[in-house]
Structures are given as C-alpha cells and as structure tokens.
Predict the 3D structure of the following.
Amino acid sequence: MKRLLLLFSLVSLPYLISFWGCTSKNRELNHKLNEMASNLNGSTPVMLDRFTRFDSASVTKDNEFCYYYTILNTTNADSLFSELKQTISENIRSQVASSPDLRIFRDNDVTLRYFYRDSLQNIVHDITITPAQYK
C-alpha cells in the first residue's frame, strides 16, 4: 500500500506542479491585461472620429481582451459599420502583428474582441481576432 501511494505521488506530482504553473501564469497574465484595460479606461470615453467613440476595455477570465465602441451620429450604425468592417479587421490584425506596444498579446496568444454598439447600446457588430489571425 505504501508503495502504491508513493508511486501515485511520484506520478501525479509533475502534473500538479504543471497545473499550478499554468494557473499561476494565467493569473499573472490576467492581472497584466486588467492593468492595461484599467489604464485605457482612465481616458474614456473618447471620440476617435466623427462616428466612433471608444467607451471602455475589459478582460475576460479566459484572458480575452475586449474593446467597446459606440457608433454615433448616424441613423444606421449597422450599415455604416458594414461598409468598413473588412478594412477595420485588416487594420487591427496589422497593428497587433507589428506594434511593440501590443507584444503582450502576441507573446501570450491573447484573443481580441471588438464590440461596436449603436447609440442605444445594442451590439451591431463584433470582431474577433485570434492569435492565428495576427501571427
């Protein structure tokens, strides 16, 4: 029985250490991402152009970094955004792939989510950029 317990301990210990290490790394990353979101939120809301207001950023428990925008000054936010969605997606991918400031996303395979809402705060479009898309 002692031998079985010892064998079980020796076999399971590396898995427990590995699990704890992964969990600890995820928590550390989550903390860093939340700091980034908090820093961004300190200067929001901010108008980026005539139609787009950056409202906030947040981080999910799965370390997805989320940006929230509102489309203003138009009666049809959906139509306005539809015309630009492809260009916006390509610009985001390019920025994440090349910007030194966004290296934390590349190094940690962070998924980015961009939510665009109308003036009533209904989500009219969202863009998801996965690590496979920006690497």
